[in-house]
């Protein structure tokens, strides 16, 4: 199947990935844009894993203040070089993540940041609920239900697991992995803070 420049350009504009990678993804997907997007996401995860050991030597801090001034967020987005840190698209990515933090109030950066105490509290809360709603069911089913509830509960609180506020089809983690592919450098959210008046 012949892949047209319009398709390649549309995929490039949407993802920011190099033209040749977009062309290859479209060829492998037989011209199917959705399959090509999925292939590029998969590839970005592989690239991010390879580059994750590289040292972050630079980055940018971005701030977002909501229109009424009552909510704001700051994000430090790290990368390897000043060259990438000064790139306008990299700065926009940091800004978009800050806007996401202001909107969705994540509590943790990654699952690893959740304390054992917090996990125990959540488990105690959901054990009671599972016991009430699944009385008489086998323990294995109750345990599976409990694990499912805990997973959903904590995914809503972990920044990298949250669906991106501007595009619910991808998580913040997917967005950062895409940046690794786009900029060719290890990219990570180093830290974030959210501020709200009166809280």
From TrEMBL:
Kindly report the protein's main subcellular placement as a broad class: cytoplasm
Single GO cellular component term: cytoplasm
Q: Which CDD domains match?
A: UBA_EF-Ts
Q: What is this protein called?
A: Elongation factor Ts
Cross-referenced InterPro entries, in alphabetical order?
EF-Ts_dimer_sf, Transl_elong_EFTs/EF1B, Transl_elong_EFTs/EF1B_dimer, Transl_elong_Ts_CS, UBA-like_sf
Compartment(s): Cytoplasm
- Write out the similarity annotation: Belongs to the EF-Ts family.
Residue intervals of the Translation elongation factor EFTs/EF1B dimerisation domain: 28-199
* Endoplasmic reticulum among keywords: no
Q: What does the function comment of this entry state?
A: Associates with the EF-Tu.GDP complex and induces the exchange of GDP to GTP. It remains bound to the aminoacyl-tRNA.EF-Tu.GTP complex up to the GTP hydrolysis stage on the ribosome.
Per its UniProt record, what Pfam families does this chain match?
EF_TS
Listed GO MF terms: translation elongation factor activity
Keywords attached to this Swiss-Prot or TrEMBL record, sorted alphabetically, are: Cytoplasm, Elongation factor, Protein biosynthesis
**Segments of this protein annotated with the region Involved in Mg(2+) ion dislocation from EF-Tu:** 81-84
């Amino acid at each position: 199947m012949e892949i047209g420049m319009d398709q390649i350009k549309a995929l490039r504009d949407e993802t920011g990935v190099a033209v040749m990678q977009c062309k290859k993804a479209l060829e492998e997907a037989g011209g199917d844009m959705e399959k090509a997007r999925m292939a590029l996401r998969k590839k970005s995860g592989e690239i991010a894993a390879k580059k994750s050991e590289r040292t972050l030597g630079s980055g940018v801090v971005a701030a977002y203040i909501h229109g009424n001034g009552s909510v704001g967020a700051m994000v430090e987005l790290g990368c390897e070089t000043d060259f990438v840190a000064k790139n306008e698209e990299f700065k926009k990515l940091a800004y978009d993540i800050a806007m996401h933090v202001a909107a969705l109030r994540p509590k943790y950066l990654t699952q690893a940041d959740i304390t054992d105490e917090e996990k125990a509290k959540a488990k105690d809360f959901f054990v009671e609920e599972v016991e009430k709603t699944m009385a008489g069911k086998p323990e294995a089913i109750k345990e599976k239900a409990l694990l499912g509830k805990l997973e959903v509960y904590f995914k809503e609180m972990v920044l990298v697991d949250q669906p991106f506020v501007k595009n619910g089809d991808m998580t913040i983690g997917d967005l950062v992995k895409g940046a690794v592919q786009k900029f060719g450098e290890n990219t990570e959210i180093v830290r974030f803070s959210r501020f709200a008046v009166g809280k």
